[in-house]
Every structure is written in structure tokens, then in C-alpha cells.
Q: What sequence folds into this?
């Protein structure tokens, strides 16, 4: 054996350190995989990611569904816009997974245009429903009919803000993340870190 470590050959290669030149915003309907894909990409490229709803909950000290209950959708959307601006202006660009309804606020379209690159992860309401294990955590996912109507209503808004659209149907988080990584590298958004 000559002293070689038998486990060494099986170890996965170290992820390549890449850098983002501007924020990347993931948009799409609930259950599209925005947070999972952003996290997977963050791990494989060694960049930072943030889930906007989690960030809002920490910042406000309450859960999204409680903000909806107390302040209504308009109150939540106002907070969401502030947070979107905040995350888009950070000196170190982030992978940002946005809430499904981020596109309903016109000011957010401006934030997307001015500060980042938008990846639209396309999913049908039916496929989204099959992916969401606990719909009680989704304040706007009352039932499948309502979800289908909402997805259809938001589709043109997602398409309007998207710099690129990735269809997620039948693909694993890993496969979607790889596809997004290739797109971001090709677009010059994700670049090798200078040595």
C-alpha cells in the first residue's frame, strides 16, 4: 500500500471558490425550489446565500404568517421591498431566494433591474403542491385551485423581471443548481476568484 490513505480517493473535490459580481435574485412560485437551489449553489461555489423570508423574520422578530395576520399583505410587502433594497445594496453580492409574491410590487421590479440578475425558477402550481410538505407555513397557499389561479396571475410578472428562466419540472435541486451555475458563469455574474 505504501502508506496511501485508502479513503483519500473517495473524497469529493474541493468546491471551486467563485465570486459574484452582482446579487442574484431567485424568483418563482412557492415550491419552485428557490431556497434549496440558492443554498446548493452557495455551497458548491462558496458564495453566500440568504432566504428573504427568513431574513425578514429575524429582522422583524416575528414569523411571516404573523406579519400577514397583523399588518395584512400590504404591510408585509412594504417590509419585503425595504429588505430587497437592503440585500441588493450589500457590498458583497449574495444569492437571494425571494418570496413567491415579491414580483407583485412594482418597486421591486426597479430594484431587480438596478441591482441584480434575476433567475426565474418555473414550476406549475400542481408540481409546487407536490413539493410543499407543510402548506400551513404558506399563508397564500389555501388550496390547489387558488394556487393555480395565483400562479397564472403571477406568471407574466415573473417573466417580466427574469433575466433567465429555468424550468424545474422533474429536475433535482442538484441538476437545477448546476444549470443555474453554468448560466451565471456564461453571463459573467459568477466568476473565478482572482488567485
A:
Amino acid at each position: 500500500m505504501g502508506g496511501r490513505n485508502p479513503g483519500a480517493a473517495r473524497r469529493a473535490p474541493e468546491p471551486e471558490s467563485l465570486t459574484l459580481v452582482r446579487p442574484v435574485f431567485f424568483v418563482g412560485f412557492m415550491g419552485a425550489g428557490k431556497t434549496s437551489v440558492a443554498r446548493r449553489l452557495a455551497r458548491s461555489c462558496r458564495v453566500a446565500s440568504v432566504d428573504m423570508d427568513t431574513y425578514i423574520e429575524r429582522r422583524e422578530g416575528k414569523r411571516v404568517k404573523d406579519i400577514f395576520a397583523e399588518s395584512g399583505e400590504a404591510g408585509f410587502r412594504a417590509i419585503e421591498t425595504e429588505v430587497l433594497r437592503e440585500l441588493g445594496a450589500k457590498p458583497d453580492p449574495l444569492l437571494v431566494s425571494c418570496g413567491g409574491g415579491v414580483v407583485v410590487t412594482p418597486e421591486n421590479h426597479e430594484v431587480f433591474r438596478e441591482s441584480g440578475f434575476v433567475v426565474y425558477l418555473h414550476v406549475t402550481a400542481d408540481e409546487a403542491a407536490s413539493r410543499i410538505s407543510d402548506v400551513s407555513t404558506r399563508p397564500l397557499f389555501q388550496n390547489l385551485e387558488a394556487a393555480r389561479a395565483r400562479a397564472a396571475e403571477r406568471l407574466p410578472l415573473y417573466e417580466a423581471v427574469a433575466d433567465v428562466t429555468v424550468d424545474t419540472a422533474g429536475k433535482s435541486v442538484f441538476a437545477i443548481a448546476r444549470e443555474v451555475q453554468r448560466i451565471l458563469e456564461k453571463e459573467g455574474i459568477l466568476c473565478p476568484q482572482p488567485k
Notes: The first strand starts at residue 18 and ends at 20. The longest helix spans residues 64-88. The chain has a mean pLDDT of 88.
